[in-house]
Amino acid sequence: MTNWPDEVDPTGHDLRLLTDELRAGHRVVRNARGEWVLLGYAEVEATATDAERFSSAVSAHLQVPNGLDGEEHAEARRVLDRYLTAEAVAPFETRFREIARDLVASLPTETDAVRDLGAVFAVRAQSAWLGWPASLEPRLLDWMQANHAATRSGERARMAQVADDFDDLIRGVLEPRRLNPTDDLTSRLMADGWKERPFTDEELVSILRNWTGGDLGSIALCVGVLAAHLSLDPALQARLRSGVSDAELDAVIDEILRLDDPFVTNRRKATCPVTVAGVEIGEGEVVKLNWTSANRDESVFGVDIFDPVGHAARNLVYGTGPHVCPGRALATMELRIAVQELLAATSAVFPGERDPEREVHPVGGYRRVPIALAR
Ligand code: HEM
């Protein structure tokens, strides 16, 4: 067991290198906040699937469904997962494709795949899905930047402020719909409920925060990772441009993200004393599942081996266990469309003149991915 030097590393180095190095000697480390960070695949998988001994009720704030356990969590998932099945999101494919096509067509030759492509695409696709007005786009983009900056800073007060700002934004979406319900997903959710009653305002804000707050940043970061990888792999670009099935492309995307998973950690709290990889963890102590490290565990995946089909079943990019990502079908469709439209509109995607910049822990992936587009 070792101590993690410092999680909030302002230098922006690729923290995968640190976790790769640490994982070689330790399956579990302790960070500067006293939290246990699980680095090995087996430990992360076992903990994510053991909801009895590892509770998700870690935050003091209401988090539906993330912060719930047991039957309450299962009921929330039964109600909310209906909005996110492959069938439920399929009707949005045409609109998402138009959004991606128009956006890629408007990009200059030298562009930033995170800010100009990933973030804008994420906001427009998400707004189309939820029925939110286009006028919210600047506010959502500003919020994404502020959210990442606050997360990077590690300052709790700043993170709380950013969370409050987002809640205000969501309340501004809910209020007009109360008087005049619209024919969109947000209004449908407002008419829905659980525990044999309608959702409360607080619950609606929490659900929409988890759908949007998590999704926007993750999609933007994933697009950055995908663009960075493709720009350095012309042979893969050529193969994908020559026409592959959606299933093949989805597997390639998941494998690129497995190697550089920008959705780094989720937390749990031990409900009893428990031993993980020989390390004793006390009741009430916080445990972090480091998906990025687990996804690179050489004992499962080998070292830097790119095998979309062979690795698919064990890929943890969308998590596992009862809290496994319900948004996977939506995210997969969005990412597939973004990659397809980027490749269709270009003859080649090159690395840009400036080097990419890594994000800072606890955010993974890149902050900036300059790319050059040959049309
Ligand atoms: C862009 C790629 C995405 C990645 C990499 C990702 C990853 C993950 C992971 C690893 C978890 C597991 C969390 C845990 O075990 O504590 C999770 C949960 C969750 N994700 Fe995603 N996600 C993505 C997109 C989305 C989208 C598009 C939505 C919805 C619109 C979404 C909504 C959620 C929710 C609500 C949970 C909590 C589920 C629960 O606690 O039961 N995610 N996600």
TrEMBL record:
SUPFAM superfamilies: Cytochrome P450. Belongs to the cytochrome P450 family. InterPro entries: Cyt_P450, Cyt_P450_B, Cyt_P450_sf. GO terms for molecular function: heme binding; iron ion binding; monooxygenase activity; oxidoreductase activity, acting on paired donors, with incorporation or reduction of molecular oxygen. This is Cytochrome. Gene3D superfamilies: Cytochrome P450. It comes from Tessaracoccus aquimaris.
